[in-house]
């Protein structure tokens, strides 16, 4: 059964394993400390979810309200690399977009991602605002994308 629930500190190793499964194609190993640091504040400062399939953690992702108060940023979303293409990313993204839609005052959802996954988010209506070649690391471009909630 597929479900999601709030992140707990005990999920840390499982989430880091999800990150590792997506290195080097989707994430650069140099991003790992930043993700670990995010996890250490996840659930306290900003909502973070884990996706479970038959009680095994297969995905994770969160969102945060930007300083402008109207933009909700999707943060650190990922699915176990071995399980891509089975609908889990859609499940995770729909859960995060539902959460973003009920943030008071939110008018848009923003994210940054690589050239490898921008097409996935385009499928949800996100449009590119900026593309930075090698923005994350050599060979991993940064796509800044936005979805209007209006
Ligand atoms: C992006 C990601 C979450 C997608 O997860 P997934 O489980 O493979 O996606 P799904 O199987 O739910 O796919 C949903 C739809 O998107 C499409 N899709 C999936 N990956 C895609 C991609 N990279 N480019 C374009 N379309 C894609 C699927 O074909 C499917 O289309 P359909 O509904 O018309 O059949 C996954 O590739 C991932 O975890 N990547 C590594 C982490 C990452 O780069 N995160 C980015 C932000 S930090």
Number of domains: 1
Give the radius of gyration.
14 Å
Query: By CATH's scheme, which homologous superfamily applies?
Result: Gcn5-related N-acetyltransferase (GNAT)
The CATH architecture classification is 3-Layer(aba) Sandwich
Low-confidence parts lasting 5 or more residues at pLDDT below 50?
none
What's the helical proportion of residues? Answer: 25-40%
Q: Structural class of the helices, strands and pairings?
A: alpha+beta
Element-level helix/strand string: EHHEEEHEHEE
Mean pLDDT: 95
What percent of residues are in strands?
35-45%
| C-alpha termini separation | 33 Å
Largest sheet geometry: 7 strands, mixed
How many individual helices? Answer: 4
Strand order of the largest sheet: 1-2-3-4-5-7-6
Tally of extended strands?
7
Topology-level CATH name: Aminopeptidase
List all distinct small molecules, including ions and cofactors, that are bound in this structure.
coenzyme A
User: Which CATH first-tier class would you pick?
Assistant: Alpha Beta
Taken from the alpha-carbon principal axes, the silhouette is: globular
Describe the structure.
With 150 residues, this protein is α+β, with helices and mostly antiparallel strands. It has one domain (2-148): 3-Layer(aba) Sandwich (Aminopeptidase). The chain is built from four helices and seven strands, in the order E-H-H-E-E-E-H-E-H-E-E. A seven-stranded mixed beta sheet has the order 1-2-3-4-5-7-6, with helices on both faces. Residues 22, 26, 76-79, 84-90, 113-114, 116-117, 119-120, 123 line the site of coenzyme A.
């Amino acid at each position: 059964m597929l479900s999601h629930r709030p992140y707990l500190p005990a999920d840390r190793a499982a989430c880091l394993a999800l990150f590792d499964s997506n290195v080097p194609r989707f994430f650069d190993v140099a991003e790992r400390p930043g993700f670990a640091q995010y996890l250490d504040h996840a659930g306290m400062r900003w909502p973070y979810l884990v996706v479970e399939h038959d009680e095994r953690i297969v995905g994770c992702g969160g969102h945060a309200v930007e300083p402008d108060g109207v933009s909700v940023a999707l943060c650190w979303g990922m699915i176990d690399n071995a399980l891509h293409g089975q609908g889990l990313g859609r499940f995770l993204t729909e859960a995060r977009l539902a959460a973003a839609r009920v943030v008071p005052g939110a008018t848009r959802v923003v994210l940054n991602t690589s050239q490898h996954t921008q097409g996935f988010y385009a499928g949800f209506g996100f449009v590119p605002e900026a593309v930075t070649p090698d923005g994350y690391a050599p060979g991993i471009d940064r796509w800044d994308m936005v979805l209007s909630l209006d």
